[in-house]
Each structure stands twice: as structure tokens, then as C-alpha cells.
Amino acid sequence: MTTRGGRWGRGLTRRGDLGDVAAGPVLRAVGLSRVYGQGEGRVVAVDGVDLDIPSGQTLAVTGPSGCGKSTLLHLLGGLDRPDEGEVWLGGRRIDLLGERALARLRRRAVGFVHQDFHLMDELTAAENVELPALLAGDSPRTARRRAAALLDRVGLADRDRHLPSELSGGQRQRVAIARALVNEPLVVLADEPTGNLDTAATHDVLRLFADLRATGQTLVLVTHDERVAATADRVVSLRDGASAEDMPLAVGGSQLGTLLGWEE
Amino acid sequence: MQDVVLALLVKGPSHGYDLRGRLLAALGPLGETLNAGQVYVTLTRLEKAGLAVLEREDASARGPRRKVYALTGAGRERVAGWLAEPAGPRADVAEFHLKLVAAAESGMAEPLALVEARRRELRRSLAEAQHAVLAHGTDSEAGLLLEGVALRLQADLRWLEACERTWSARAPYGKGGGNG
Q: Less packed terminus of chain A by CB within 10 Å, N or C?
């Protein structure tokens, strides 16, 4: 049983019967394939992807539009089911779970961040963040406390009673990130999280992801933006649904000054 | 220029007029400033350096005789070295483009492999720059410069995507395009 940060005391774990994460990758795909349509309209969106994502890693999945990166993310997060292959989350195979079990697991173990935020327009920022905690069975008091702490963490403590329409795009996305974190997920999956943001808001979101990474949060980012991918620990490039390249990114290995090309 | 002209000789001996035509085809309107004499001067220098030899002089039906140059062993080695060397942080777009053209023509390197190596190089640089941007913000002078560097690297990477698309469509270069 795993509880990160020990916040949940009393022997409760947020993730129910999930296995010991330390024993292997948090998220694992084995021979994952997803095919849409039949005959002439048949499209292989994801084609035999193997992926091991260790705990605490920030992984960026890049590639041109239509390369299958969003489909892959949906498969990893249990929003879609593979035609072939396996998905393991927290040491447990999830692609064979029934709908209800899968929905329950998704709610607790996976935090989603979408390009267009997907906030509930009629709920305040705080209520948006509380909602998944309430759905997971938290008391209103606990949910409120968690939401307040997270809004503070994303720098929006003073915007808790604002409706999404009263917030900027960058602020909405930060609310969405707080919401994704409220159930202390094993993994946060973000689909083009900065796709609708300007430069300053993009930097804010990327700084927030860097903070999450520092706390050991596992994070998968789907992006077509190389600058977003550049903040990850590792970049996987998809081409036609298959992994074409898998490269680690270590920062600090080369001197920044060489980028000016003045070394000669 | 020397490297490019040498690389064009890998496919077989050739004369200045033909080499210039092939360069112009690869450069398009950007090659307009390429002066006719440059290729001939380059060939003479390559000959002096022992990288190319004057093989023969062909008589053309009209006009001057054409000096046909061939690559020497040292010249071939130089081309291989040029194709393999990393482009560096501030690589010139035209030079890398000509490298891809030369790699494909000569068969001495695979364009898509060069694209991939370049992408890894640029990604490493961008990771450094982007982390520094996030650490400094763009309000400071230093941060502003870093933002410029990061945007340039991002643009280079986007152009590489176009290179990859075009060269994989031209295949028989193996990788790319198909599922894999």
C-alpha cells in the first residue's frame, strides 16, 4: 500500500488496492495498439508502443498532429482501451478492469489536465478543485481543506471564489492542475497543457510542473511544442503511432555559454 | 563551400558548370548570390589541397573546354568527416540543408540519421536554455536573451520536422514514414 506524503493517516490510502509502486514503473505500456475504423478507413492510431515510466519521472510525448500521442495518453489513463497490449498502473493491470472499477481507479490514481481546461463554468475555482475529492468520497470539510491548500500551491489562493470566466487562461489551467492533484494521483497526464496559453502563462504552468517534479510527482505531458518537451526528464517521439525515439534529457551537462557559439 | 563541392563529387567526377547547377537546384532563390566564379575557385583550391584531382578536360560542342574533377581518397575522408561532425549550437540553416542534399546524393550518410542526430543536439541545448528561461523569467535582461536563444532553438527544431517529413517521403532511405 502506498501513501505519499502520509497525509491520509488512519491507515487509509487514497488508491485503495493499488500495489507497491516502488517495486516497478508507476506506469507501463506493453505492446500497446489502438485501431480505429475498419477496411479502407482503418487507422492504426497507436502501434505497438512499449513504455516504462518510473516514479517521479516527467515524460514528454511529442510528435506531429495525428501521430497518436493523445490516443496513447488516453490509453495510459484508462480513458480508452487498447485493442492489443497491456497497461499497468501502480503495479496493477488496468486495461482489463470493468467500467466501474476503471472509473474508480481513474478518479483516484490519475489526474488529467486538458488543453482547454475542462473546468465547470458554474462552479468557483475552489469548487472545481473540490469536486474530484468529493466524488472520491472525501468529506466536504476535507475536500475544502485540500482545495484551499492546492490553490495556494498554484498561486491562486486569492481567486478561490472566482468563476472560471473571471480568470485568465493561465489561471484556469492552474486551477485545472490543482484539481488534477486533489486526490494525490499516482500520475498526472497532461494533453497539450499549454496549447491555449500565451508565453507568460506557459512559463507559469511549466514552472508549476517543475515544482511538482521536485515533489516526486510522476507526470506525462503530450505536446507538439519542443520548448515544453525541453522541460521533461525524457522525450519520446511518436511517428505514425509508434515510438521513433526515446531520449533522456539531462540538464547541466553542457555550458549554457556554448549556445552563443563564441567558444572559438 | 569546399565541403559542399567535395560532397557533390562523391557521386562521380564532374565539372564546375554541372556542380554549380546542382548547387543552384538545392539552394533555389537563395543561390542567386552564388557567383559563377566561386565554384571554379573552390575547385582549384581543392585541387591544390589534394582533395580533388583534375581528371580530364572534356570538349563541349560550343564554348570552353570543361575541366572534370574527381575526388581523391583524402577528399572522400574529408566529406565523411564533414557529414559526421555535429552542426554546433548556431548552425547555419543552408549548410545543414546542403549537408542533407549531399548525404542523399553521395550515399555516404542517411539524411534522416543526420536529422535525428541534429534533433538530439538541439533538444539538449533547448533543455538547457529552457530551464534557464524558467529560472530567470523574461523580465530581466539575462532572461530576455535566454528567451531569444530558446525561441531560435525551437524554430530550428520545427524546421527539422519539415526536413524529416520531406526526406522520409523521398525514402529509399529506410527509416521514417512507415509504421515501425
A: C
Pairing outcome for strands A234-239 and A58-62 = parallel
CB contact under 8 A, B123 and A251: no
Give the residue carrying C-alpha cell 549550437. Answer: B89
Smallest Cβ–Cβ distance between B120 and the set A210, A247, A261 belongs to: A247
pLDDT-based confidence at residue B171 (cuts at 50, 70, 90): low
What cell was used for A194?
A: 499549454
Residues B11 and A134: their CA atoms lie apart, in Å, by: 70
Q: What is the pTM of this model?
A: 0.85
Tell if the CB–CB gap between B134 and A230 is shorter than 8 Å.
no
Please give the pLDDT value at position A252: 76
B133: chain A residues, CB-CB within 8 Å:
203
Using one digit for the tens of pLDDT, what is the confidence trace for B103-117?
A: 998 888 999 999 999
A259 lies within 8 A of chain B by CB: yes
Instruction: Please check whether residue A199 touches B, CB under 8 A.
Output: yes
CB count, 10 Å around CB of B163?
A: 18
Alpha carbon of B18: minimum distance to chain A alpha carbons (Å): 34
Residues in chain A with CB shorter than 8 Å from the CB of B138 are: 199-200, 203
Mean pLDDT of A209-231: 95
Q: In B, which residues are within 8 Å of A260 by CB distance?
A: 89-90, 149
Could you tell me which residues come within 8 angstroms of residue A107 by beta carbon, excluding any fewer than 6 positions away? A132, A135, A136, A183
pLDDT digits (tens, 9 = 90+) for B23-52: 999 998 888 888 878 999 999 999 999 999
Contact: B130, A227; criterion CB under 8 Å: yes
When pLDDT is cut at 50, 70 and 90, the band that residue B169 belongs to is confident
Across chain A, what does the average pLDDT equal?
A: 89
Contact B126 A244 (CB under 8 A): no
* H, E, C per residue of B131-148: HHHHHHCCCCHHHHHHHH
- Residues A117-145: pLDDT tens digits? 999 999 999 999 999 999 999 999 999 99
Of B116, B137, B149, the CB nearest to A259: B149
Q: A261: distance to nearest CA of chain B, Å? A: 6
